[in-house]
C-alpha cells in the first residue's frame, strides 16, 4: 500500500470514529542543556514536517484526546499540558491534501486547538506512528532549515510566546530541566525563553533568593573546566513561589 492509499484508507476509518472539523496540535518542548527543541514528525506523504497532532473521537473529551494522541504518535505519557490557542485559517488543511478529492476526511476545514507540552527530553525516545517516516526532536535554531506543513510554524511560534508570558506563573523550568542541573543551564533556559541575555550575577542572586532551589552535595563531572555545582528544584517552595509570581527578569 503506497502513502496515498494509506491516507484514503485512514479517511474512511476517520469518518466513523472522529468528530469533523476539529483537531488538536500539541507543541512538545524539550531542553538539552543549551537549546530548546520541539518534537516533530516527518510524514511519509509529502515528506514535510508536522506537529504530532490528531483528531478528536466522537465520544471523548478534548483533553483526553490530546493525551491519547501524544501517547500514540510519540510514546509520551505523564506530561505537563496546557491549551494556549485556536487556529482556524481557511484552507489550512485543504492545501496540504490538494492531491485528493474534496471528500477526503483530512481535507475538510479543521479548527485546531493548540496545546503546549513540557517534557524532560532525556527521558524518552520518540516513536513514529505508521503515517510518519520519523518522529524526532528538532532544535528551534534548525526550524528555518526544514519545511513545516500547514500553519505549524505559526503554532510553534505562538506556543513559544506563551511560554515566555507564563514563565513566572507556570512550572516551566521544573518540567523541562533534568532532576539535577547547573545554574548556567537554568540561566540558559531562561535566556532562550525570554529571548535576551541575562546578567549572570543578578540572575544567580534572584534565583537563589526565591528559595526554590536545593544545592546538592555533588558536582557535574566530565568537563574540561571546574566541575559546577548541581541543583534540584524544591518542588513545594517552587509551587508556592509560582502562586505569588516569580520575579520579573
Give the radius of gyration.
20 Å
- Beta strands, count: 9
Strand share of the residues?
Answer: 25-35%
Q: Low-confidence parts lasting 5 or more residues at pLDDT below 50? A: none
State the helical fraction.
Answer: 25-40%
**Major beta sheet summary:** 7 strands, mixed
Number of helical stretches of at least 4 residues? 7
Report on this model:
This protein is of the alpha+beta class. The chain contains seven helices and nine strands; from the N terminus they run αββββαβββααααββα. The strands form two sheets. Strands 1, 2, 3, 4, 5, 6 and 7 form a seven-stranded mixed β-sheet that branches. It has a two-stranded antiparallel sheet with strand order 8-9. Strand 1 (18-31) and strand 2 form a beta hairpin. The longest helix has 15 residues, at 3-17.
